[in-house]
Specification:
CATH architecture: 3-Layer(aba) Sandwich
Largest sheet: 7 strands, parallel
Radius of gyration: 18 Å
Number of strands: 9
Strand order of the largest sheet: 3-2-1-4-5-6-9
Bound molecules: NADP nicotinamide-adenine-dinucleotide phosphate
Low-confidence stretches: none
Number of helices: 9
CATH class: Alpha Beta
Length: 259
């Protein structure tokens, strides 16, 4: 049985100001854990502060900014040794192929990959101090299953999540000897402000609360890969196993329909 989240834990959640991060923060507070939560929107952080009272410390930080992150480094240990860093902050920007602009690709990569990597600049030293005291330390990286199939318009988002998953799994290999676990979360569609802007069908959409519940249960079970909802992710896996020519035809046809 995994020891993760079995006793009161000190957890940092990035991108806690809405969607999955907010729902996860609330679920963890309700279970009695101590949270440090960050995001860019102060008002949303203030609401979380009100919700969690003394269980929560909030701090404004843009995860793409080294300066912002350096300024909150000490805050991560304000509740004691840091047991878990949930690196969830992310964005999804779609490409309009008729007005191709590489900035869309850059924005996705900067927030989703570089922002996550920079968050580790401050999380890893704190987690190392924890593991060196014989306590549990876990990095949780919220990626996506979107990159398992080449969806039109998702060039930037899919590339960023493919890169992020590789980053996380290679990090897992490097940190294994130190005993620091790296968990990758790969959700399908979750109803949040990020997906509210989508103008296409989202099969097997789950609520942010449901997503948070699945993440917490996966962490408690000691999983290193948390993938949900299964009906969606299995469908994507099956599609991804088709010959490339068939995949290309299907994704081009979907792109025409959704374009
Ligand atoms: N919703 C889905 O269907 C779905 C599926 C698969 C994976 N995901 C992933 O789940 C994560 C959370 O997404 P969500 O759906 O919950 O979207 P969301 O409601 O838009 O939440 C995104 C969070 O990230 C924060 N954020 C964005 N850019 C940031 C930056 N530069 N610095 C600091 N914080 C930043 C936002 O806070 P501020 O605006 O306050 O900074 C917000 O709290 C993302 O990594 C997303 O890719 C979502």
């Amino acid at each position: 049985m995994s020891q993760r989240l079995q006793s009161t834990s000190n957890i940092w959640v990035t991108g806690a100001s809405s969607g999955i991060g907010e729902a996860l923060t609330k679920a963890l507070i309700e279970q009695g854990h101590h949270l440090v939560v960050t995001g860019r929107r102060q008002e949303a952080l203030d609401e979380l502060q009100q919700f969690g009272g003394e269980s929560v410390t909030t701090a404004r930080a843009d995860t793409t900014s080294r300066e912002d992150l350096a300024a909150i480094a000490d805050t991560l240990e304000s509740n004691g040794d840091l047991n878990m860093a949930v690196l969830n902050a992310g964005t999804c920007e779609y490409l309009d192929i008729s007005e191709y602009d590489s900035e869309v690709i850059e924005k996705n990569l900067t927030t989703n990959v570089v922002g996550t990597a920079r968050s580790l600049d401050i999380a890893l030293p704190a987690l190392r101090r924890t593991i060196n005291k014989g306590k549990q330390a876990t990095v949780v990286i919220v990626s996506s299953s979107a990159w398992w199939f080449p969806f039109g318009r998702a060039e930037g988002y899919g590339a960023s999540k493919a890169a992020l998953t590789y980053f996380a799994q290679a990090l897992r290999a490097d940190l294994a000897a130190e005993g620091i676990d790296v968990v990758v979360v790969s959700p399908g569609f979750v109803k949040t402000p990020l997906t509210d802007k989508n103008d296409f069908p989202m099969p097997f959409l789950v609520t942010a609360e449901d997503a948070a519940d699945r993440i917490v249960r996966g962490l408690q079970k000691g999983k290193r890969e948390i993938v949900f909802p299964k009906r969606f992710t299995w469908s994507l896996k099956l599609l991804g196993a088709l010959p490339q020519t068939l995949i290309d035809r299907m994704s081009a046809s979907m792109s025409r329909k959704n374009g």
